[in-house]
Write a sequence for this structure.
């Protein structure tokens, strides 16, 4: 892999704060880098821009493939920028890990939005995670905030770990569904429903309209059975058509109303404070592993350990403990 | 939380090797425990039983909720035990994290299998992960092998991180799908298709039969477009009816054929060797974080750090680095 030239931290900081999109993109690439030198630089940039973050509303958007996320984001995003707001979308790159495109062929996604100067779309690296949330999505979000974006969409696909990760970094979590497809088949598990702040029945257009209305009633009834959330917000169920644009304004109004209520009752900031703490824990784990694998003695021993484990002569967990002990013994107080 | 009484390591080891199911269940509970003392005991047990593991075929079974996993496992499992084999199923507990049951009500799952003495069903703890794969599923699998089970099913739900985790511990990975539901809607992404060794169109019964056959052809054609795998296995597409039992024997034969071919070309053991190495890496991460959070000085400092981060006065990543540095300085060579 080619080592990229890097700017000084100040170039990234100034560029991001000046809303220079080229630098913003390069700064996101920097924080996504696994190189130790890049990581130190990234931390310096992040710490410097942090006081300029926090002034956006962070919205997570999830739903299984086929539910119409791209079309929804395309139209909903246009509504947001028509309100005079700057929008950043941390989107999923639909190409798979090996980069040969989806089994159904690549989709043209967010065509209008991607041409609009008021919007910034950053596809997440297709690499390490399937759900589209990378380990550095949080940092990318904060960089966008520092660059002055008022609204951040974080798109995620599928149902599972990536939603838990996104829930841990957004203010509002929106689940797109389809009427009539059956909630089981859409991977709607109670855990996900409990996480979301709004459940949107998409594709409520044409012949689907009545089914969408029925689904809305059913879900609204079902949601009443759930214990109320600590922030006393009852998740809303709404219908919309990402294709025709119906219902999008109501969704935007609901998000505004949520934000105002949560700021008033203190939950908005309390939730963000908890999210920052979780960020610290995530980063601790990351730093511990980095230090371990970059340790010279570990580096010298790990290949032998792997060979022994491959041969089946030694237990993987026993070897892990031995290596961690070697690492601990290596560290000298500085 | 009540602290449980523990046996000595030898009691667990002898009990598991003697196929005592009560002890086996308790040993799995032991490895799932987060208590440091339990973890030391668990490692001792795992290292002792490890030479007695490896003699099973490990089969991952995935598919979105509603695809019929429980029914499939119920019937496929019966076929396996009718072959004279002992079957362990590491299953998903359908109740959600907060333990109030699914939105559609709890299902009665694997009724026949759970009554059969030749099968052992262990629901995964509903706690920490949504996909049903816990951090200790691998250990549970090995304990079952040491207890003499010939076939292990690892059930997982949804599409994402949990499948990657399961792929990392099984020999054969089987994806259940439905005909006509649209592959997009079922969360079938190229990444998952690339992972699976067989794609099974379930519910190929009654009026669905023709659609299932068509879907089989389509997927088989699509799979030909994928680059061939390093083990030179072309993922098979088959239809079956978990409800009526049709097609299950062919699936079992295919898995046998896979196993024989992979043993012959060396992939079977090479894959398991790689999986053991990944296990070591996972455990290293776990041990590093455990050591960190159990460190006395960290324990004393972490609350202040969390308070500072909550107040927003300090960057989470900066504080993480500081704490990791404090930890490093604490460690004395022993």
């Amino acid at each position: 892999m080619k080592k990229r030239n890097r700017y000084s931290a100040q170039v990234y900081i100034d560029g991001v704060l000046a809303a220079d999109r080229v630098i913003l993109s390069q700064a996101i690439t920097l924080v996504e880098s696994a190189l130790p030198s890049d990581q130190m630089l990234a931390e310096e940039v992040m710490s410097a821009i942090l006081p300029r973050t926090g002034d956006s509303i962070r919205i997570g958007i999830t739903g299984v493939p086929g539910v119409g996320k791209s079309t929804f984001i395309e139209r909903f995003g246009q509504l947001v920028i028509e309100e005079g707001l700057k929008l950043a979308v941390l989107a999923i790159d639909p190409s798979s890990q090996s980069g040969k495109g989806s089994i159904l062929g690549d989709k043209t996604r967010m065509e209008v939005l991607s041409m609009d100067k008021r919007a910034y779309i950053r596809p997440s690296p297709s690499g390490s995670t399937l759900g589209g949330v990378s380990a550095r999505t949080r940092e990318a979000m904060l960089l966008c905030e520092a660059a002055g974006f008022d609204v951040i969409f974080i798109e995620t696909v599928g149902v599972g770990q990536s939603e838990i990760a996104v829930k841990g970094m957004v203010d509002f979590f929106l689940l797109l569904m389809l009427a009539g497809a059956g909630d089981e088949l859409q991977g709607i598990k109670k855990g996900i429903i409990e996480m979301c702040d709004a459940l949107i029945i998409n594709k409520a257009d044409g012949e689907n309209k009545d089914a969408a209305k029925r689904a809305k009633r059913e879900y609204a009834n079902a949601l009443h059975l759930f214990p109320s959330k600590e922030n006393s917000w009852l998740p809303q169920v709404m219908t919309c058509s990402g294709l025709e644009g119906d219902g999008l304004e109501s969704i935007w109004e609901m998000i505004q109303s949520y934000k105002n209520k949560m700021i008033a009752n203190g939950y908005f900031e309390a939730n963000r404070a908890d999210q920052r703490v979780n960020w610290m824990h995530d980063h601790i784990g990351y730093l511990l592993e980095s230090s371990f694998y970059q340790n010279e003695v570990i580096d010298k021993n790990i290949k032998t350990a792997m060979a022994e484990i491959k041969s089946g002569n030694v237990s993987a967990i026993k070897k892990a403990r031995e290596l961690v002990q070697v690492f601990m013994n290596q560290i000298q107080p500085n």
Observations:
- The two ends of chain A are 33 Å apart (CA to CA).
- The beta strands of chain A are 57-62, 87-91, 119-123, 151-155, 172-178, 198-202, 236-239.
- Chain A has 13 helices and seven strands.
- The longest helix of chain A spans residues 267-294.
